[in-house]
Protein 1
Amino acid sequence: MKEFLKRKNIEISVKRYLIDALGAMAQGLFCSLLIGTIINTIGTQFGIGFLTVPVATVAGVDYTVGGLATAMSGPAMAVAIGYALQAPPLVLFSLITVGFASNALGGAGGPLAVLFVAIISAEIGKAVSKETKIDILVTPLVTIGVGVALSAWWAPALGKAASSVGTLIMWATTKQPFVMGILVSVIVGIALTLPISSAAICAALSLTGLAGGAAVAGCCAQMVGFAVMSFKENKWGGLVSQGIGTSMLQMPNIIKNPRIWISPILCSAITGPLATCIFKMEMNGAAVSSGMGTCGLVGQIGVYTGWVNDIAAGNKAAITATDWIGLILICFILPAVLCPLFNMIAVKLGWVKDGDMKLD
């Protein structure tokens, strides 16, 4: 069995499934749901006609350019997962159907259903791939058959479970904004820097509202915090790569000296409750944006998109100066000020020294 799994490149490990696959799923979400949302927002806000008018009608449903991208989120996630698992072509292409089925049947928790179903379908598809002379028939039939069957069996329950957890977190945040603001901000921020996908986690849990705002705050504390407090070592390249790229670049340094992580975590514990209690910052755009922070400014675009959606739905009168001040303070100014201050204390205590945050 070990020889068979090795020959089929089936590696049953936490890294393969919860790091590689989850990270790839977030990229699939970014290239479909998130990009579609951004396109729709640009079209609406700037009055770009060809981005706001329907370009296709499928089964009586009109789709804009952004709408088409959003509708493909399930297939995009599944194919991205298959790519991360190094699935052969026939398996990879068959995952398009699997992703569509699991995402549609999973409802609000569709991304979590896609993650589980796509992984199992891909691995089973890899196991049968090129084992028969009629591989072009067997591999797609098995991959799609297993995927659709699991989608019908598991996806509704997985979707409901993920949605329930997300709803519980959001409900708890509205009831206890201070405590939950700290917890959500710190936990999602840590997930952003770890080699897992905070964006995929937020998407799987449909994390929006005040909880989504706290998640954005935590992610920004990590990204902007590391970018600014390591500027001496990494200069402008490090500022850009961490500030609008990812704080995950610091993981090798965190492993060497975990104490460099104290400052961003403390910062997120402050900005999270400020977001929920003082500025009432909600992230009502695409849930995946809650876990993106300042990566490509996606978190901020998500917050803005939520404002626009709330205004259109009649839940918000207008975008106020307080909204903008809160967004700028929470996402940029406070992390850029607090993290270096906390780091100065850590340096004086001898916990951190020059060069500890130097990127390779």
Protein 2
Amino acid sequence: MNGSIQKRGKHSWRLAFDLGKDENGKRQRKFVTVQGTKAEAQRQLRELVSSVDKGLPIDTSNITVGEFLDQWLETYVKTNTSPKTCYDYDGMIRRYIKPTLGHIPLRKLSPQLIQQLHANMYEQGLSARSVQYTHRILKQSLKHAMKWGLLYRNICDLVDSPKLKRKEMRCLDVSEVQRLLEATSGSIYGHIFHLAVYTGLRRGELLALRWYDVDLHSKTLYVNQALTTIKGKGVVASEPKTPNSRRLVSLPPSATGLLRSLKAKRMEQYEAIGIEWDQSTYVFCNVDGSLIRPDTVTHAFQRTAQNLRLSDVRFHDLRHTHATLMLKQGVHPKIVSERLGHASIHITLDTYSHVLPGLQETAALLFDDVLRQPSEKLSSNTR
């Protein structure tokens, strides 16, 4: 595959390269005019030639960043992500990316412009987390622009994503867990709190459980969806957060007993009001069978935590509590990762690194004990 560069003006270059032969055997050539230095023109020519060699389409249209993002949302995001993710992406693009970059031709996107996007968001008082999330959305979209032949490199790779300070998680100790469960025992919210502590499921995963997802005989439950609230659509069921979030979770005896008694109670309630029992009923629902809104659970937990004087505790911290207590009991991080539905064990190790130093110390002492035992037995046998 050949290409050439011809100077057109002071900072203008005409690139020419072969596209191979058509069905009639006729040679095809492509011509593109670019701006910049000769070195930049040479780089773009190499990228164009490389794209043709890889079979990628060559598109030099003047599509804007905004037009491209609209296409990306419609053709990729809507069909490949959950409704909640699609809603979040659309909101961040509409509120922050488009006002700054929407009118810019996609092929003229530069590191300086993306840095300006960051600066504009900080000026609006947004957090580093929001800026990082927006940067991640734009970077992901530009990966598809490259696949579609609209770009030859991802400009976001040239801009540092904002660094976040690790937020200290709050994990309840055993006595605090016991206080929480005793104070809410018998209530529907207490059942939710109990299962959150004993399984580590996310809030939306708990509320999306149906009775056919629960196997009381094998003492397991199957996570296959999550409830989320989307503005304009209300509460909807969607795919779990990641592919690994679809998982089978073993239940401890206390959680199995709780679910067994809850199921019996639900069946009695249905019989009393003349409704036929259905296994597709949600495990956690209102008396009439309607969904419990996720934010309702959060507010109920906040009130309970305040009454029990559990400071700075969120509902999501019950998930952290489950993981931390399991790790402290010597459960292998791989098993904890599977129970939590993390995309990889690396996320588990990174999230709960504060627990690992103590575990390493315990492991070192146990290893020392293992090696010491044969020596002591050998010494006693020679006496």
Protein 3
Amino acid sequence: MALTELTIKSLKPQSKAYRMTDSGGLALEVSPTGSKLWRWRYYFQGKEQMLALGKYPTLSLAEARKKRDEARGLVDTGKHPTREKKANKIRRIIESENTFEVVARHCLNVMQKGLNEKYATQNLTRMEQHVFPTIGSLPITEITIPDVVKVVENISNRGTVETAKRMKQLIGQVFRFATQRGICLHNPASDLRDILPPQQEKHFACIHPSELPDLLRKINTREPDLSKYAMQLLALTFVRTGELIGMRWDEIDWAREEWHIPKERMKMKRPHIVPLSTQALAILLEIQKRTGNREYVFFSAASKSKHISNGTVLMALRRMGYQGRMTGHGFRTLASTILNEKGYAPDVIERQLAHADEDKVRNAYNRAEYLLERKKMMQEYADWLDVVKHEDAGKILTLTQKKH
């Protein structure tokens, strides 16, 4: 006879545990202490089994019957309900432990090994500021597309579209990491291409080539400090500011007159060779008198283990009257413009600028590509800079347009 709620409430404990049957193998077990537990008797591969479904009244009669039917469905498909229950319990524990923040930290630790330490730290700091407060505590398996959209849009609405774009990329990287390792089944950040407003291309401030002689003269008349040497070397090597200030003495090959930048410090994550002109070598020899016993060429006096900051060059240019008009990156722009005007081969210039090559096969071999041509170009450009220091704005235009 099937149980009813009234019957169940009237059941009293006895000296020994006993069971009252419902239907389809479902029964309610009453213990001597008065607690009531739902159990389901079933047969799996010809052997009798017993599955605990839950306690009454937490699990009502209707809910117990529903769980019985679900378990019966598992048996019908050849699955063992007791084993499935244990597996689900373990799965829930793993999911509760694998929150987005836990997985993200593990992902960043694994994926960013060998990258620039400052860059890796910056990524983690941004995640802590913009992502973890919203979805960090959620199990990664429960995060949906709208959850990710909310995070990215909130960052964008605060006016930091570039940060929102970077966080979208990082969130996607974390989910790819998780799906590849079976932690979750899908990547809700895989297709969010249209959620951010389009941005205008960002350009670094740079003076007109006609202003170059005056800038070089102002740099030349500065007191001999690291900011002066940094600007001079940016003009002679046209590397990125971050690459220059992180220069180490052991990266310089004095015999070959080359500077070898490891891939970890390059934007495109490929090693890069910078031919050093006689002018660049002379400046390095001057700096060596100051910081030659340190790890970094541009060693910071404020720290025992760090180099000067990006702001050092920017502040020096600002004090010279170039605020909003010139940046460290501007030396790259000037070199590219002038060398192209002078007729040097675009491939040689692009290789020296360490720009990305769309042909991935060529990228694998381009570290030293055009090295002889680049050595010649870099020395000629350094000699040309020596000449234009003493020229006026009108004459530099003529000098720039001379074809190589």
